[in-house]
Amino acid sequence: MIVVQVSMKLEMKDSPGQLVAALKPMSDVGGNIIAVIHQRDPDATDDTLNVQIVLELPEGRLDDLVTMLKKQGVHIQRIGEERLLYQRTVILIGHLMHTDLSDTVDRIDSTGFAEVSELSMSMPAVNERSSSRLTIKSVTKDDMEDAVAILRTVAKEKDLLLIEPLEEIL
Amino acid sequence: MKVAIIGFGSVGRGVAEMIAKKDLGISVTGLADSKSGCIDPAGIDLFRVLEKKKKSGCCGDRNISALDVIKKAPYDALIDVTPTNAMTGEPGLGYVTQAIKKKKHIVTSNKGPIALAYKELRALAEKNGVALRYEATVGGAIPIFHTLGHGLAGNEILAVFGVLNGTCNYILTRMADEGLTYEQALLEAREMGYAEADPSYDVEGIDAAIKLVILANTIWGNGVKLDDVDRTGINLLTPDAMRLAEEEDCTVRLIAEAIPKKGFLRVAPRIIEKSNPLVVDGTLNAITIETDMAKEITLIGRGAGSIETASAILGDLLFIRDRYVERS
C-alpha cells in the first residue's frame, strides 16, 4: 500500500467540538494522525484556532479529505509537501522470542531504507508458536521489495512462517 | 454425439445422471469403472447402470476393461473422470493418450495428465485433429477455460490469482469467523466431508499448485511443472494470526498466484483485504484474471461436487459437439 504523509495547517472556530469535527474526516478517509500541534496565540483577539496536523493517509484520498474538511467549515490555510511512503503489513508465525525478535526487527531497521513502524504480537503459551503483525515502511517501492526479501531470508533462517499481503491486485 | 465414460465414481455418476436426465442429444456407448465395463453401440441405459453400480459396486462386465471400452466402443469423445494421480497421471494419462491416437476428442476432469503432460497431450491432440478440453480440472463449475479461451480471446493475460482449494478455504473461513484453531477447523472439515482422512494433499497446497500449473500452461504455454511452484500450506496458521489480520480489515486465504513478468508462481497463505472479491466463504472457489484490455475479471463458483463438476464436463462436451462433431 502507498501512503502519503502530509502536514496541513487548519483554521477553525475556537469553540467546543471543533477540533474533533476536524479530526473525524481524517479517520474517515483511513488516515493515521501522527501529530497535532495546537498552540493558542496569547495575543489572539479573534475567536479562531490554528492547528497544525501531520497525518498519513492512503494514496489518492487527500482530495476527499479536503472536501470533507471544507464541509465541516474548516479552513485549510496550507497543505505541506506530500511525502510518499510505502507501507506493507506482514504476519510472522513461529517461535518469535526464542529466535530473537529484536534481531528480526533490526535486520529491517538496520538497512537504513526501511523500518518496522508497528509491531503487534500475541504469545499464547511458553512453548507454543506466537504470531505477530509487522508494518514496514519505506520511501520507494524497490526498497520495500528489498526489505520483504530480507524478511523472507530471516523467516527461512529462523523457521518462521511469513504471510505476505496480496499486493499485486490493485 | 456418442461418448464413452471412463471412471464411475461420484463425478462419473453425476455426468451419467445429467446425460440421462437432460435431452442433450448425447448417448453413452461405452462405460467403465476400475473393475468392469460395458459397451452398447445403440446407447447404454444409464438409469439401469446407475442402479447396478449402486447395488453391486460394478457398472458392467468384469471381462471388459477400461482399455477395451476405449479401443472397441464407437464414440466421438472420451470422458475421463478417473481419479487424479499427481505423480504419474495414471491411469488417466494412458487412457487419454490411447483415445487421442484413435482420433477421439477428450473431455477430462483428471488433473494428473493435464498437469504432468500438457504439452505432449496438446501436441498429440493437434496432430490427430481432436479437441482436448479439461474445464472441470480447475475451479469445479467455474467456466474458467471457456472464459479465457473465448470471452477473453485477444486479451493479453498478465496475471492470475485464485482460491482454488475448497477444503483450505473452508478451514480458513472457520478459523477467521469462529476463532477455531487449525486442528479444530480441520476436524470440522472432515466431519462435513470436505477433507480427506489424509488432508496433506489439500492443506499443503499441492492441489492448488497442480491447478495453478494447469492454468499457467493453458494461458502462457510455458511448460511449468508442479516442482516449479513455490508452495506453502496452511497447516501452521494460528487463530492469533487470523485475528491480527482481522484488526486491519483483512483476512488470510490460500492464494495461488502466477505473474510471469515478475517470475511469480506460488501458492501461499496471504493477507488479503476482506473487500477483495477473492475472499469467498466456505468451500467456494474464486479466480481473478488480470488482462491488458478487460483489466480484472473475477469468477466465483462451486469448486467441487459431482453435479457441479458435471456442469463443467457437459459444457466441454457440448462445445465439442457444436464445433467438431455436427459439422463432420
Coarse structural class of chain A: alpha+beta
How large is the share of residues in beta strands of chain A?
Answer: 35-45%
Radius of gyration of chain B: 20 Å
Radius of gyration of chain A: 20 Å
Report the total helices of chain A. Answer: 4
Please tally the β strands of chain A and state the result.
8
**What is the chains' assembly state?**
heterodimer
Q: What strand order characterises the main sheet of chain B? A: 3-2-1-4-5-6
Helical/strand content category of chain B: alpha/beta
Overall mean pLDDT of chain B stands at 95
Instruction: Report how far apart the termini of chain A are.
Output: 9 Å
N-to-C order of helices and strands of chain B: EHEEHHEHEHEHEHHHHEHEEEEH
Number of helices of chain B: 12
**Sheet with most strands of chain A:** 8 strands, antiparallel
Distance between the termini of chain B: 11 Å
Low-confidence stretches of chain A: none
Largest sheet of chain B: 6 strands, mixed
Task: Tell me the strand percentage band of chain B.
Answer: 15-25%
Shape of chain B: globular
Helix % of chain B is: 40-55%
What's the rounded overall pLDDT mean of chain A?
A: 87
Can you give me a brief rundown of this structure?
The complex is a heterodimer of chains A (170) and B (328). Chain A is an alpha+beta fold and 170 residues long.
Describe the structure.
- The complex is a heterodimer of chains A (170) and B (328).
- In chain A, strands 1, 2, 3, 4, 5, 6, 7 and 8 form an eight-stranded antiparallel sheet that branches.
- Chain A is of the alpha+beta class and 170 residues long.
- Chain A has four helices and eight strands; from the N terminus they run E-H-E-E-H-E-E-H-E-E-H-E.
- The longest helix of chain A is centred in the last third of the chain and has 17 residues, at 141-157.
- With 328 residues, chain B is α/β, with parallel strands linked by helices.
- Helices cover 41% and strands 21% of the residues of chain B.
- In chain B, the strands form two sheets. Chain B has a six-stranded mixed sheet with strand order 3-2-1-4-5-6, with helices on both faces. In chain B, strands 8-10-9-7-11-12 form a six-stranded mixed sheet.
- In chain B, helix 4 links the parallel strand 4 (77-80) and strand 5.
- The relative contact order of chain B is 0.15.
- The chains are: A alpha+beta (170), B alpha/beta (328).
- The A-B interface holds A 89-91, 93-94, 120, 122, 124, 129-133, 161, 163-166, 168-169 and B 159, 161, 232, 236-238, 240-241, 243-245, 247-248, 250, 252, 255, 257, 259, 262, 264, 268-272, 276, 278, 288, 290, 296.
- Strand 8 of chain A pairs parallel with strand 10 (264-273) of chain B, so a sheet runs across the interface.
